[in-house]
Design brief:
- The protein has 286 residues and is of the alpha/beta class.
- The protein is globular.
Length: 286
């Protein structure tokens, strides 16, 4: 797979665009593929309103050969500023329909296979949520964890804006999503490697560097801790933590691809909004 100027196609990734910030919206306006055949993985937290999410994904879909989206928690918020007042599953399903209208693949679509350099690999966008199983040290229940978090003042806005309807709780929604996604991944050919794309890391280890470790409760589930081994993962792409870096677990590359908020990326030496190359692989900081 080659394209203009003889360049090889790339599988690229980004997340946590947060285009409600004008500086971040400008980053999206400037994003371009390097070749005509580049794919782009977007691992959630594009924006909080359906209109803004549509604008960003449609803009990127007009430039990249294929755009693949996995939702973050911010897309799932029923935000006071959004005229779309759908909650929970209904909001997620509405966003899936928006993506289909503009030609963006979602976790509800068949997993495409990247056949370019570094392939073939099945690219699986996931929507899994979290179940409060990444508890603070010394806590054994969700209730204890939340009490501790409220005591420190570090509480995710999901507690107010991310509704699980019609599920009884976000953890119930998470468990349902994990079960359905597990079934789909198990149906992939046994000899086909994968790139899994989820807003949250599949294993807890990336949260070990959080300044506020109690925030890990809103960062994933222990139910997926062995997926990087079970499903032949070459790279696990995620965001959410706003700590872009590469880590390795059991020989599997975990790639955090967040842009984050302007107050965060202004402190970094590298230019903001850089697309991380997933295939062919690139070496990042350990």
């Amino acid at each position: 797979m080659t394209s203009r100027a003889g360049g090889a196609a790339q599988l690229l990734a980004i997340s946590d665009l947060h285009i409600g910030y004008p500086e971040n919206r400008a980053l999206v306006e400037a994003m371009r593929p390097e070749t005509d055949d580049d794919w782009l993985l977007v691992a959630g937290d594009v924006a909080e309103t359906v209109e803004a999410i549509r604008w960003a994904l449609e803009t990127l879909a007009g430039r990249f050969r294929k755009v693949i989206w996995a939702p973050g928690n911010h897309e799932l918020w029923t935000h006071p500023s959004d005229p779309v007042t759908l909650r929970g599953v209904a909001r997620y399903e509405h966003l899936v329909e928006v993506c289909r209208e503009i030609g963006v693949l979602t976790p509800e679509d068949p997993y495409p296979v990247w056949e370019g350099p570094g392939g073939p690999v099945a690219v699986a966008p996931l929507f899994l949520l979290y179940d409060y199983s990444f508890l603070p040290t010394g806590c054994t229940t969700k209730e204890q964890g939340l009490e501790y978090a409220y005591g420190t003042g570090i509480v995710c806005t999901d507690e107010h804006l991310l509704h699980p309807d019609p599920h009884p709780s976000r953890e119930d929604w998470c468990r349902a999503r994990v079960a359905e996604t597990e079934r789909r991944l198990e149906s992939l050919p046994d000899d086909l490697p994968t790139v899994l794309v989820n807003h949250y890391p599949l294993d807890r280890h990336p949260t070990d560097v959080l300044w506020h470790p109690e925030f890990a409760m809103w960062c994933g589930t222990t139910l997926t801790a062995d997926w990087h081994r079970r499903f032949r993962v070459e790279t696990m792409v995620y965001g959410h933590l706003h700590i872009p870096r590469t880590t390795w677990l059991d020989g599997v590359r975990f790639e955090e691809v967040s842009v984050g908020y302007p107050r965060e990326w202004r402190k970094r030496p590298e230019p903001p909004g850089r697309l991380r190359r997933i295939a062919p692989g690139e070496v990042g900081a350990l």
